[in-house]
Amino acid sequence: MPEGDSLVMNKRNSRLAIIGAGRVGTAMACLAKERGYRIIGLCCLHFEKAKIAAVFLNQSGAAYEAPGPWLKDADITLITTPDGEIGRVCGQIAAKGYFRQGSVVAHCSGAHPSSILVTASDAGCHTGSIHPLQSCATQELAIKAIPSSYFCIEGSEYARDELKGLALAIGGRILEIATADKPLYHAGAAVASNFLVAVINFALTLYENIGIDRQKGVQALAPLFEGTINNIKSVGIPEALTGPIMRGDLETVEAHLAALKEKMPGYIGLYCALGHETVKVALAKGTINQEIGRRIHGLFFDLKDASEKGC
Questions:
Q1: Are 59 and 155 within one domain?
Q2: Which residue of 15, 66, 189, 230 lies most exposed, with the fewest beta carbons within 10 A?
Q3: Is the domain of 303 the same as that of 249?
C-alpha cells in the first residue's frame, strides 16, 4: 500500500471539531465527513451559522453556541475563525481547559504560523496549520474546489502527520513549509489569487472606458485568461508569456501608454509596475535582449511623473 494511502487509512474515524462555521470550516467538515472522519461538533460566534452548517452536514445535534467540554472528545480541533480571532479564541478555550492533552489543535489561516496557537501548545496539545491553497468564494464552490488542491501544512511533527492524513483523505496534495516561511507563502498565494482579480478588474476598467460593460468584458476576456492559465500549466513560465513586451514591440507599448496618459492617467502606475515585471519574464524567455529591455523600462520610468499625478 502506498505511504499516502496508509496514512489516510490510519486517520479514518478520527474525531474532528470545527471552531468557526464559515465557508472554509463548513467545507472542511463536509469533505472530512465524506471521507470517514467523525464530526463531533461545530460552533460559531453566530450560532445560526453553526446550526446551518450542522444541518448541511445532516448532523443537526452537532451545533454548539460556544466551545465547551464537548471539545475534549476531539482528536483534531480546527480553528477556522477569521485570522484576527484565532489566537484569542485559542487562548479562551485553553484557559477553560477544553483542549484534550495530546490532541491536535490547528488553524486554517494561510497568513499565520502555527505558533499563534501557543496557548494550546502550553496545554499539552500538538499544534499546526493546514491551509487549502484555494479561493473559497462560497461554501458550495469551496466544497468543489478544495479536493485536488494543495494544502500548506506546518507545525509540530505529530500535528503535521495528522493534518497530512486529513488533507490526503479529502483528496488534496501536500505542500510542507517551515513555520518561519508562512508570510512569504501567503504573499505568493495573495499575488496569484487576489492580485489576479485586481489585474482582471484593471482590464475590465480599460474596456469600460471604451464602452464595453463589465459583464460583456468578462465574457470576452474569460477565454483569454483561461487560455493563459492553461498555457502556464502546459509550458510554464517564461514560455507562456506572449504579447508586445515579449516581442520587444516598443511602438505598441508606447501606444498603450499614450492612451492611458490621455484617458486614464490614474492607471499608468499600475501598467508600468506590471510592465517592469513583464520585461523580466521576457528577458528570461530570451525573446528580447538587455538593450530592448532597458528601452522598455525607460518608457515606464519616463512616465513616473504622470503616474504620481494620476495617483
A1: yes
A2: 230
A3: yes
Query: For residues 155 and 174, is the Cβ–Cβ distance under 8 A?
Result: no
Confidence of residue 310 (pLDDT cuts 50, 70, 90): very low
Longest pairwise C-alpha distance within the chain: 69
Supply 241's cell numbers: 508569456
Q: Where in the sequence is the domain holding 251, given as residue range(s)?
A: 186-310
Residue type, 249: D
Single out the residue in 125, 154, 177 at which a domain terminates: 177
Are β-strands 126-132 and 150-155 bridged in parallel, bridged antiparallel, or unpaired? antiparallel
- Nearest by Cα to 109 from 83, 91, 74, 139: 83
The closest of 29, 74, 18, 53 to 169, measured between CA atoms, is 29
Domains contained in the chain, number: 2
Residues 18 and 103 reside in one and the same domain: yes
Say how far apart CA 235 and CA 215 lie, in whole Å. 30
pLDDT in tens, 109-129: 999 999 999 999 999 999 999
